[in-house]
TrEMBL record:
Transmembrane region(s): 20-40, 72-88, 108-125, 283-303, 309-326, 338-361
BP-aspect Gene Ontology terms: lipopolysaccharide transport; transmembrane transport
NCBIfam families named in the record: LptG_lptG
Annotated signal sequence range: none
Official protein name in the record: LPS export ABC transporter permease LptG
This protein's encoding gene: lptG
Membrane topology value: Multi-pass membrane protein
Length: 365
């Protein structure tokens, strides 16, 4: 096996261009089909809100599309790999390249390099675009498709506890002393956990100390009576730092910010195994695109006229989808504490890299 993986710049550009065009074609097809299905299931909920119309549907599609791109880009690379390699095999181009002295690794090298670049672009896209759209979309959904939050650092469904008392909020925006919450509920409970009083408020702000609830409705459980008031201060033991640590959504926080937040969680004595696994997976997930040409390489070799090309393509597809199954299973085990976070995020990648390389060497090298 030669060590010069790129002996021809012309051939490298030819294979890379073919591969990229097929990745884009498959990705656009998958995203459009899945986005239409998603709109069919959610458009009724969005349009049911007074004032919502076509503009809100387009806004929803614009925020949902990046999530679909993030999820299905590795699948697109796998399918594009199979299409590209099967086409090259059927047209006897692989035979021509091997007859010219290229090894199997040299044939795959342009595809591997292209997949690595796609993985890097995917990482940047996920952390710059997908995290923001995910945070806004979750906050919008928590608002039951009402007014769209304008801030990008909104969080939804926040739950806080001060002793036996509980403070919940449908939306939270801002940081530090500038935190603002909407659709707030304060549950005052007895030492045995029974609810004594429920206070609903339209919004809450930090009162230094405590949290000022405005436009409130109070309900006394003992007397079953309700009353309205302008404002009240509750939760004096809850600080902005506790609010910041109340809930971290790894899908909504960029990679370079998530690490610091996880460290803060650990300093507070919180369990961070699930978040740490997802933090590592922000790297291993996009890098999975690099594996797809290696796992699908079995479709590139073997004589097309032998009748085994379809079987080889199925084997390549099976290896690729087996990786996604094992990857999701390992991540789930990491979330439950069955695997260490680093192992849960990276073990499937290295395992299938070894499997793909072994199959390629044993069959073609």
């Amino acid at each position: 096996m030669q060590l010069d993986f790129f002996p021809s710049a012309t051939l490298t550009r030819y294979l890379a261009k073919m591969f990229v065009l097929r990745i884009l074609a498959v990705l656009v097809m998958l995203v459009l089909v899945l986005l239409m299905l998603d709109l069919l299931s959610n458009s009724g909920k969005i349009l049911a809100v007074p004032g919502n119309g076509q503009g809100e549907l387009l806004t929803y599609a614009g925020m949902r599309a990046p999530q679909l791109v993030q999820r299905f880009l590795p699948y697109s690379v796998l399918l594009a790999t199979l299409i590209t390699l099967v086409t090259l095999n059927q047209n006897s181009e692989v035979i021509a390249m091997k007859a010219a002295g290229l090894s199997a690794h040299q044939v795959l090298a342009p595809l591997l390099l292209t997949a690595l670049v796609v993985g890097g672009i995917s990482f940047a896209f996920n952390e710059q675009v997908v995290t923001r759209s995910t945070a806004t979309l979750k906050a919008w959904e928590a608002a039951e498709w009402g007014s769209i939050p304008e801030e990008s650092n909104v969080r939804a469904n926040v739950y806080l506890a001060e002793g036996t008392n509980v403070l919940t909020a449908a939306q939270l925006a801002g940081r530090g002393d500038d935190i603002r919450m909407t659709d707030v509920t304060w549950y005052r409970r007895s030492p045995d956990g029974a609810i004594v009083e429920q206070i609903d408020a339209a919004r809450a702000t930090y009162a230094k100390p405590g949290w000022r609830l405005d436009d409130i409705t109070r309900f006394e459980v003992a007397s079953a009576s309700s009353s309205e008031a302008g404002s009240i201060v509750v939760g004096e033991g809850l600080t902005p730092n506790q609010i910041d640590l109340a809930r971290i959504d790894p899908d909504s926080v960029p990679f370079w910010e998530l690490g610091a937040q996880i460290d803060a969680f650990e300093e507070a004595g919180r369990r961070t195994g699930e978040m740490r696994a997802k933090w590592w997976h922000k790297l291993s997930g996009p890098l999975s695109s690099f594996l797809m040409p290696l796992l699908g390489a079995v479709a590139a070799f073997g004589l097309a006229r032998s009748g085994q090309l379809f079987v080889r393509a199925l084997i390549g597809m099976a290896l690729g989808f087996a990786y996604f199954v094992v990857d999701n299973a390992a991540l789930a085990m990491g979330n439950f504490g069955g695997y260490p976070p680093l192992l849960a995020a990276w073990a499937p990648f290295f395992l299938f890299a070894l499997i793909g390389e072994t199959v390629l060497i044993r069959t073609e090298e």
